[in-house]
Task: inverse folding
């Protein structure tokens, strides 16, 4: 029986080329112009699962984009691993900031990826990371190394809130029953220091609209005498943080869990250089809530950020105008115990209450979801750690991430199982940004590490 290391080195060119083909399909779920491409990607994933050894493969229809399901059951008495990933990607824009076309993958080296990285939208988030599992499955089935049952569930709406997946999970508890859920859709500290993500933040996302006069006005004839919705919106947004960068919405922090000093000291042991962080982002000083470190601010603390703001004239030259309306998209990242719907309600009430009578405001909720924390004393975590220790030569560090995968909390609620977040991306891989990439080292290391997770999980389950 071939071992995984030699299998990967023997097949790596094919593994890379197959991923490149998948990355060429622009599966942008947010933009209906790409709907046929999203569907084609689902078909491509289905074929890949079937070639990798799944005995059952299905395109499961939902009210939205389909879910690709695959399974290989070898013995009902053995444990079952459920792999989750997403085949949809974020929009590529702003396209002009890409050094090469987003759906025309190229391999280039970077400081962090001396062995090369594949540049394309979705390379890391999540096609590359999802496909590691498909190739790991190929290895295990073709080499007689699959030690348990495996199910795959790959969705096409993660980047737009996973509402069809929630619909699907609620209706298919039996089909999706498992002993552990395995996901690679997060990151790790560095290529020499693996980490396992033990927490994700929740999300509450709203859009606000501020309306002043019933039409756009000449800013000379009316300026100074009527409320300018853009001025008002800016003031309202500015008031959402105080001088310590604390969020001012009443009740916002009520459910927030304060970590003990011991837990914070433990977190601070993870390798981190503030200088390198600032250099990588070209900023002279970090910023954030008083009393917390950078790593705490972006993982265990909730936030409020404007993601986009618009209104009035933004074209070439100058136009003198007071716009009738101003808009913003605002996201709040939540920590476990803060409930997304409650936070959206608190935001709405507060935002309406701070609006002056001279304008009308409308708050429209977008998608949201709950945060997640997982303990490290379960066999899933231990098996993952053992796998990383073997392939990287050092144990993984548990780390809470600031990102969100809202479906993970729902998995726990509906399927009653824990999720292990074995991510292989780096923060510098530019997910959601121009020039997204995924290291070849990371891709192949992932394929090498995943079968070991299966092996140790099954051993530890006995
Ligand atoms: N894979 C990311 C989330 C992520 C990335 C978590 C890195 C931890 C580390 C996922 O695809 C994503 O982008 N999630 C969205 C939320 C979703 C509801 C649109 C996010 O975090 O903004
Ligand atoms: Mn993702
Ligand atoms: Mn994403």
Result:
């Amino acid at each position: 029986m071939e071992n995984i290391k030699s299998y990967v080195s023997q097949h790596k060119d094919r593994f890379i080329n197959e991923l490149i083909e998948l990355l060429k399909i622009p599966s942008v779920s947010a933009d209906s112009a790409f709907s046929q491409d999203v569907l084609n990607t689902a078909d491509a994933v289905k074929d890949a699962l079937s070639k990798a050894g799944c005995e059952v493969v299905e395109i499961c229809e939902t009210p939205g984009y389909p879910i690709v399901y695959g399974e290989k059951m070898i013995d009902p008495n053995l444990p079952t691993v459920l792999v989750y990933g997403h085949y949809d990607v974020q929009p590529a824009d702003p396209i002009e900031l890409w050094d090469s076309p987003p759906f025309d993958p190229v391999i280039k080296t970077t400081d962090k990826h001396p062995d090369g990285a594949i540049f394309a939208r979705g390379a890391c988030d999540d096609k590359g990371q999802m496909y590691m599992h498909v190739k790991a499955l190929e290895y295990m089935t073709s080499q007689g190394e699959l030690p348990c049952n495996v199910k795959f569930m790959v969705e096409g709406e993660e980047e737009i809130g996973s509402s069809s997946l929630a619909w699907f999970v609620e209706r298919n508890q039996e089909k999706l029953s498992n002993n552990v859920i395995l996901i690679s859709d997060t990151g790790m500290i560095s290529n020499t220091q693996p980490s396992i993500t033990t927490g994700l933040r929740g999300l509450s996302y709203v859009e606000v609209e501020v309306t002043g006069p019933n039409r756009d006005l000449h800013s000379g004839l009316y300026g100074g005498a009527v409320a300018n919705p853009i001025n008002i919106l800016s003031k309202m947004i500015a008031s959402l943080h105080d001088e310590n960068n604390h969020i001012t919405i009443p009740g916002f922090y009520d459910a927030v869990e304060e970590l003990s000093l011991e837990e914070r000291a433990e977190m601070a042991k993870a390798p981190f250089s503030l200088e390198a962080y600032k250099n990588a982002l070209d900023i002279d000083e970090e910023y954030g809530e008083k009393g917390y470190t950078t790593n705490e601010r972006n993982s265990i603390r909730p936030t409020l950020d404007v993601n986009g703001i618009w209104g009035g004239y933004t074209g070439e030259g100058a136009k003198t105008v007071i716009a009738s309306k101003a808009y913003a998209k605002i996201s709040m990242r939540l920590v476990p115990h803060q409930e997304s719907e409650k936070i959206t309600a608190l935001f709405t009430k507060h935002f309406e209450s701070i609006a002056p009578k001279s304008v009308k405001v409308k708050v429209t909720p977008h998608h949201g979801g709950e945060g997640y924390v997982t303990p490290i004393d379960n066999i899933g975590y231990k098996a993952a750690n053992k796998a990383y220790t073997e392939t990287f030569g050092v144990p993984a560090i548990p780390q809470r991430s600031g990102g969100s995968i809202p479906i993970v909390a729902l998995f726990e609620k509906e399927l009653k199982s824990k999720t292990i977040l074995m991510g292989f991306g780096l923060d510098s891989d530019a997910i959601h940004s121009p020039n997204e990439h995924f290291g070849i080292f990371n891709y192949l290391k992932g394929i090498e590490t995943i079968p070991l997770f299966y092996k140790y999980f099954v051993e530890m389950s006995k």
